[in-house]
Each structure stands twice: as structure tokens, then as C-alpha cells.
């Protein structure tokens, strides 16, 4: 059986939301897509018992491996919607700043500062595209390929669009 995060878990993991103790939050962060055995191997101790409590409280759900591999995973709530009213330089920059803040500001300050600098210095969509690709690389490194792929799909219009004048 595979552990999957519920919407309640994603809400708990948002910056500024701290209803659970740190040990339970650690289990939530690592639980998505793993079995209880894998989680025990990563964390040891009685974290499997904490995971079971989180299942009972509605933060995690157990799914069979076949269902987990074929399920469609909605984009995490941490990702704002991509603007659909055309891609302006200013709008695109603000969208990428927002992503940077939501994903990295609280946990990886040095990385967030580096990404902010790239975004501040970007003066055209081609440079913003480069900054967006840097952000995606950071997401892949810190959150995994699945999250990066979901975000890459949402940002497809930005990353694949030809540069346009501001």
C-alpha cells in the first residue's frame, strides 16, 4: 500500500500553517508515494505509527500500488494558476516571483534569493524563460521529478513561447 497526501495534508504543509507537531509534518513531507516500509527505512523509529495516525486523521490515504501509478495527480495547491491573458514581461515576472516565494522562501532562503536575483535582472521574456527553467531545475532537485513535471506542464506556455516585445 502506498501513502498519498490528501488536500488536508497539502493545506497543513503550506507556509504559515502549523497545526501538527514537527514529527508529523516530517512524515507528511516524505510520505507521498512511499510505502510504510520505505518510510520506516527513511525515518526509522516509530514513524510508521505516526503515519498510521495521519491516515486516521485524514492527512494521508493508503492506496494500492496499481491505483497510485495510474492515478492522475492534480497540481499541488502551492502552484498559482498560470495567467491566461497573454504573456507580458511584468506579469510573467510576477508569476515566477510568486512561485519562488511559495516554493523556496521558507525552506531554502539562499536558493530563493538566487532565483529572485535572476528574476529581477530579467528584462525580456527570453531571460524570464531562462529564470523559469532555473526554477524548474530547483523544483526537480528539492521536490522531485513528479512535481517538476506538473509545474513544467503548467508553465508550458511561458517556457515554449517565442520571445515577444514588452
Automatic annotation (TrEMBL):
This is Uncharacterized protein.
Amino acid at each position: 500500500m502506498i501513502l498519498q497526501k490528501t488536500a488536508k495534508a497539502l493545506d497543513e504543509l503550506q507556509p504559515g500553517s502549523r497545526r501538527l507537531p514537527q514529527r508529523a509534518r516530517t512524515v507528511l513531507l516524505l510520505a507521498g508515494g512511499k510505502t510504510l516500509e520505505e518510510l520506516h527505512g527513511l525515518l526509522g523509529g516509530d514513524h510508521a505509527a505516526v503515519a498510521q495516525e495521519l491516515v486516521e486523521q485524514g492527512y494521508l490515504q493508503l492506496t494500492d500500488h496499481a491505483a497510485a501509478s495510474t492515478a492522475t495527480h492534480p497540481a499541488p495547491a502551492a502552484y498559482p494558476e498560470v495567467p491566461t491573458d497573454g504573456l507580458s514581461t511584468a506579469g510573467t515576472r510576477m508569476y515566477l516571483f510568486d512561485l519562488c516565494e511559495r516554493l523556496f522562501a521558507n525552506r531554502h532562503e539562499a536558493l530563493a534569493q538566487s532565483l529572485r536575483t535572476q528574476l529581477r535582472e530579467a528584462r525580456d521574456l527570453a531571460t524570464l524563460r531562462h529564470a523559469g527553467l532555473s526554477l524548474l531545475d530547483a523544483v526537480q532537485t528539492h521536490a522531485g521529478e513528479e512535481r517538476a513535471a506538473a509545474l513544467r506542464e503548467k508553465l508550458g506556455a511561458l517556457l515554449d513561447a517565442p520571445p515577444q516585445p514588452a
